[in-house]
Amino acid sequence: MNGRTPPLDDTTGLWQAVLAAAVGRCQCRGTCGKTHAKDGGRCPTRDGGYARHGAGPVSLLAAPTAPDGLLLPAHRAAALPKRELAAWCPACHDATRRAAAKARQAAAGPAGPDSLF
Length: 117
Known about the structure:
By secondary structure, this protein is an alpha+beta fold. 26% of the residues lie in helices and 7% in strands.
């Protein structure tokens, strides 16, 4: 497959299938906080490409498509079917995950005081 090197634990070919569906390009459409406007609304980062000067090659991740899905425990995220996964560059993945965690925390409201007695 296009010379991509799958993760060591990709025994089922799921990572390769997700990247093939994404045509080897990050599928973020702005959930990371960037508009990606110069690139048609989609992150331009490609698997094996370079995100910026001086940085090494980027390896895309297969992770849940929905931002809330990025907050799932690893064992639940690993059990998701291909249709619920997307290719993410590390920068978009991390930024989207932080935004989802912040939104979840804001929706939960402030924590009440802990009582010792």
